[in-house]
Amino acid sequence: MFDIKRKGSLLHPYWPEARWNISGVFNYRALVSFLVQTMRAHGITHVIESFHGAPDLMWNGGRMNANVPNFPDTEAYLKSLNNVGIGVYFTFTNAVLEKRHLDDKKSNELLDRLDEKCGLNGVIVLNDLLADYIRDKKPGLKQVCSVVKSFIENPKGDIGWYRKMEERFDRVVIHTDHMFDLDLLDKLDRNKAEILITEECVYQCPNRAHHQTLNSIYNIAQSEDEEKARETMEKIKVIRKAKCSGGGRLLNPERNTGMQRSCYLTHDEVKTIYDMGFRHLKISGRRKTIFGISWNILNWVFNQEQAHTFAGILYSGIEQKIREEYISLVKEKGIVNSAV
Q: pTM for this structure?
């Protein structure tokens, strides 16, 4: 006979002590707000360590700037997360910043909105100039070493490099190729390491570091040199269209001729890493669709028996939020629409 009793935990039973760093703090504010609201109602927000992301800024680099706004009420929004014990990390991950870029007005204005006194907030960085600049300006912020820094500086998995990063940063996001090397993982500081479990790039991708660097160049060129921005965009398109075999191209034999796997981990792989003592887990996806990032959250954070229920709650809540914002816009613009 099947067990028809309801399971007690709403969290995924494989990793109940995991602390999650989740993408979307700027892209998907409605999702973030309703996720927190729903989890608070069930007393499980303690598993969310932080949300991360960035609007369109010169200092952003892990992803291309793609019309992600910085809203006027950002400071109040961030504070609302801090008030329930959840941190916010800005992804200031541009790889090619120079000293002159440290004075960028929009980036500094956003940095100024982040509370450094509550002990919850921080930045994800890789550029040493920027890391030192932020330490001097806001020493109370935590700093996480971006996975992109390891892509560029440590593709071969030098344990000495990781030791240096552990000394320099509060946490270090592990190169997604290195997660498959359990001997290397076993040498890392569990309190310092952060495991990115949803990377869709293929294992040992030969284009990863170059692609990430081009993203950084593009974000700066947007503000400084339109022609260079266009040229950089064309180079990025070449990688996307002709070289990239990750994401939705993974099972395309013409794009992924060796049928190489992605670095998106399986549940069993994450369970193995968790059982080794790692507790800081990261869900990326700030450029995915809202359904993509929602699926990742539901798939990894929640007990699979309850995930479908939370999916319905989140989607209906997000839909209502979007509807309210639309009605507000209609009223503000004086538009009459009988469909609203």
A: 0.88
